[in-house]
Write a structure and sequence with these properties.
Blueprint lengths: L4 E6 L11 H20 L3 E6 L2 H14 L9 H26 L5 E4 L3 E3 L12 E7 L1 H10 L4 E4 L5 E5 L6 E2 L2 H9 L2 E5 L5 E6 L2 E4 L6 H11 L4 E6 L4 E3 L7 E3 L1 E3 H9 L8 H14 L4 E6 L3 H7 L3 E4 L8
Parallel strand pairs: 1-2, 1-12, 2-9, 3-9, 4-10, 12-16, 15-17
Antiparallel strand pairs: 4-8, 5-7, 6-7, 10-11, 13-14, 16-17
Helix pairs in contact: 1-3, 2-3, 6-8
């Protein structure tokens, strides 16, 4: 079997569900690590990225509650870096434990990753990226009264969440560092939370108050390190069209052209599946002979053995090469 370089993008909600304690998130990551280690057992080169929407939102709320003139809250870009560090720390420990449990020798490393965005990106004028916990409409309205600068929107029928600007990534600053680690047999954890959003100012990168979509940042990283496969993990085993309708259909082998037709029909929810599909399409279109996969964490084993999941290629090919 040919060794593949694989970028696996974990959602922030796979790390935090209802219990926001460190202990609960560490326990969730230990379960996650047991699935991820299957790629290492398979002989593949693994790069892990992850979301941080719930975590960074909670951190910002904690800071706002305790903020004073002498001890002000940190800006969003710094909060992203902070959660990159905390989630990376938990995930490294969980992976190291699982790697040893299955008798492998492999090192892991977390990279505090900066991702360049354009100062003129229109997203800065139109906050759209959900972060933090879900609220009822009444609680969201109360939060807005406490913090008038916050904007809340309904998120895919699951409740209300705060939204912040989400500019598109144009360059992963530390991609060469990530590739060097992969080339030397290390498992990097990178572009956590979509990366720290920065703009170029001469020789300096300056942070911006925003959150980059994890799937788009993972796609950009996968491009830059010449990955063979981009795997975006979500709550379902497949991408569906006519979702939650009597005519619902799971997509298995699908071409970019067919996905574009579904995009034109507005088949995918903006706050959930749409960016995953768009990121997967971008990766396939911008790379040579690569593929993208959208599936669930629990289906990783089935994907490795049978090709389970939504597999996106330029043209139709066999799921298992």
């Amino acid at each position: 079997m040919t060794k593949k370089r694989i970028v696996v993008a974990l959602g922030g909600n796979a790390i935090l569900s209802q219990d926001a304690s460190a202990q609960a998130q560490q326990a969730a990551l230990r379960k996650t690590a047991a699935y991820l280690v299957k790629f290492i057992q398979n002989g593949d080169e693994l790069v892990i990225s992850h979301g941080n929407g719930p975590q960074v939102g909670n951190l910002l709320l904690q800071q706002a509650t305790g903020s004073t003139e002498n001890n002000p809250a940190m800006p969003i870009d710094t909060a992203v870096a902070m959660t990159q560090g905390s989630i990376g720390y938990w995930l490294q420990n969980a992976l190291n434990e699982e790697i040893k449990k299955v008798g492998l020798k492999k090192e892991t490393a977390t990279i505090v990753t900066q991702v360049e965005v354009a100062e003129t990106d229109p997203a800065f004028q139109n906050p759209s990226k959900p972060i933090g916990p879900f609220y009822t409409k009444e609680i969201a309205e109360a939060k807005h009264l406490e913090h008038p600068e916050y904007k809340f929107v309904e998120d895919a029928g699951r409740g209300y969440r705060r939204v912040v600007p989400s500019p598109r990534p144009i360059n992963v600053i530390e991609s060469n560092v990530v590739e060097t680690l992969v080339n030397n047999g290390v498992v990097p954890i990178s572009v956590g939370g979509g990366g720290v959003p920065v703009v170029r100012n001469g020789n300096r990168f300056a942070g911006r108050e925003a959150v980059i979509d994890k799937d788009f940042a993972s796609e950009k990283l996968a491009e830059q390190i010449n990955a063979d496969v981009l795997i975006i993990l979500t709550a379902v085993d497949h991408v569906f069209v006519n979702f939650n309708k009597p005519t619902q259909k799971a997509l298995k082998n699908v071409s970019v052209e067919e996905l574009q037709q579904y995009l034109d029909e507005n088949q995918f929810a903006k706050g959930s599946m749409l960016p995953k599909v768009q990121a997967a399409m971008n990766f396939v279109e911008n790379t040579h002979n690569a593929k993208a996969v959208i599936t669930s964490l629990e289906s990783i084993g089935d994907f490795l053995e049978q090709g389970t999941g939504t597999v996106i290629t330029k043209d139709y090919v066999s799921v298992k090469e």
